[in-house]
Amino acid sequence: MDIILVPGFWLDASSWAGVVPAIEAAGHRSVPLTLPGLESKDANRAGIGLRDHIDAVVAAVDGLDGKVVLVGHSGGGAIIHGVIDARPDRVARAIYVDSGPLGEGGVVNDELEADGDDIPLPPWEGFEDADLVDLDDALREQFRARAIPQPKGVAFDQQHLHDERRYDVPATVIACEFPSAMLHEWIAGGHPFVAELGRMTDVEYVDLPTGHWPQFTKPDELGSVIVAAVDRTGT
Fold this sequence. Notes:
- The protein is α/β, with parallel strands linked by helices.
- The chain has helices at 20-25, 50-62, 76-86, 137-146, 152-156, 180-188, 195-199, 214-217, 219-231; strands spanning 2-6, 29-32, 68-73, 91-97, 118-119, 150-151, 171-175, 203-207.
- The strands form two sheets. A six-stranded parallel β-sheet has the order 2-1-3-4-7-8, sandwiched between helices. It has a two-stranded antiparallel sheet with strand order 5-6.
- The chain is globular, with a radius of gyration of 16 Å.
- The model has no long low-confidence stretch (mean pLDDT 97).
């Protein structure tokens, strides 16, 4: 199975390096992506928006044969959901890594501080304690050294969706910061944060307790959870 790996904010394809070995050892092919504007710290990010990132992943899907699995971390969850909406018949499973689907009209995060067209990685004190669980000083230093400014438009643009077949694509939510029991409570309570997730018809939840970046803090475990979800997927 081809598994397309979509990174979250400030990260490129190399951020999946710790996860790829488990995927490929299981006989699958990993396709980690670097999205527009994330090619380097000096890349031009002017005019790059959420739709550009969705279109880049759609192009990757179109370049492969058969059905694929999409994995989206953090803001990448919004991106893969847009891809599912565009190609619902091509996606065997969507895997949301400490993330979830972003519904019509939603934005990933328009509260992040921008510098022109860029959103630099915020200082650590700008994150919640739950984000930073297991992200020790060495990992923080490595993350900050590799971090690439995020295109502002990707965070601020509204999501636009058109095909309700997206609700029938099987999904796996890998819960890291918040346990899956809390997500179930939010869905039952009608919390808008999980409204789109609550409309999906085939969702499984897997707990992987750690902070917001399991590809750094628990890469082997994350790879194993992804492989297990893929192996449960009919093709």
